[in-house]
Please model this.
Amino acid sequence: MNNDPLTWHRVADKSEILEDEPIAVKVGDKHIGLYLLDGEIYAMDNVCSHEFAILTDGFMEGKCIECPIHQAQFDIRTGKAMSAPAEVDIATYPVKLEGGDVLVGLRDE
Amino acid sequence: MTDTAPYIVVGAGQAGHWAVRTLREEGYDGPLVLIGDEQHPPYERPPLSKQVMDGDATPESCYLTTADKLAELGVEFIPGRGVETLDRDRRLVALDDGTVRHYHRLMITTGTRPRPLDVPGAEAAPLHYLRTIEDSLAIRAHFAPGRHVAIIGGGLIGLEAAATAIKAGCRVSVIEAADRLMARVVGTEASAHFATLHRSHGVDIIFSAMATEIESGDKACRISLSTGTQLEADVIVAGIGVVANAEFAARAGLKTDNGVWVDEYGRSEDPHIFAAGDVTCHHNPYLDRRVRLETWQNAQNQAIAAAKTMAGTPTAANDVPWGWSDQFDARLQILGVPERWDRMVRRDGANETAFSLFYLDGDQLTAVNAINTPMDIAVARRLMGRRMAVDAERLADTSVALRDLLKG
Model:
């Protein structure tokens, strides 16, 4: 993990994210998915690494989100590609809560 | 010699790609050969009737890998060569250039080829089939505003080509032998929905008709139909089914009947020979019969499982059969086949063009035809995979979240 400074972006209210019902947000051009899993909120790139598809349009089960187009599965906590046809892991982002606000930390580019 | 003979995968399509990739992931680090009769590295075919045919995507965008990446995996890739002879006693394959290669284990992933249209005049006609990148590009070259395209076969290939031709401004006629579209894979309701959809875009569909003869002139051709009428066209695309590339296996004495027979682990009756993908005929537990699946899912998942078996960890590929088709703005997704059912339930989707049709045999889902309802498919695939009892009323009731049915 590098030490570039993070910029925190408020992306949602925590009440918008339900168990098994992730939401899609954007920070600039970046598509990010927000997930509620075991009481914790996770943020992950929302574009499948196999082909363009919005992951949060897919099915969340347990700790995985399944891409709606070709069923590639990713681990929400780590971004790891868990099944074919995905071969490339995707990025996850740190999340912090300030009251009801959900903030995602992105490294400045 | 056979101790150091390589593992050979014959057939460098999608199944062949996942086979070699999986063999390496499973820890097989011996010599590995991939033989394919096309010049391209392994690629996926679904875009060939859609975005490649309409020019939105390049052929290279279909590639699953490259010659360089195969080399990095330590795969000896032999493109442009077919296998003519399989000698199981001596464990070798002879290629069409006379080369002989010995194998320690062999995986057959040779897929299928288009069934040829067997009518007088077919050979001289401007007739195209769709299987390869070259086929797709050749068909695309004929699509232009005002050109009349005749499509023989109202199955998934024919209908996707029809939608692409309409998008290119062509006049399109679809000639279908049955009395409905996609008769082998969907129920009557989905057939009717897509007939309406295609006709609303100007496609002329002729049912219960077969081509009986084609006369070709300088610029156009005339197709005689079994209905007694004739149709003029500038170009013909035929999508009338496929034939498994299993002849070389049959000559070697392997059981082939509508494809190479394998068990759920991808094993043939020969302990050194495995097979996966379009070329195989295998038992699917959800259809509860032997089947030759023609899907992207099967090419991938059966190859992964068979490769794991080949590498030493017997793995079954028992998926709920799933396929999709994109025609105009409709994404059709299919689970199973509506063969055994006593009740069909419709669940409305977000709007008029989105709905799911569930086929039930008692309290078991046996098939789903879903149009623009991807979440219904994700849930239904799990319901079918887990063989959960399903309440028809709750399936139809949109005030009940479909995923709640997974809680039992």
About this structure: DSSP finds nine helices and 26 strands in chain B. The two ends of chain B are 56 Å apart (CA to CA).
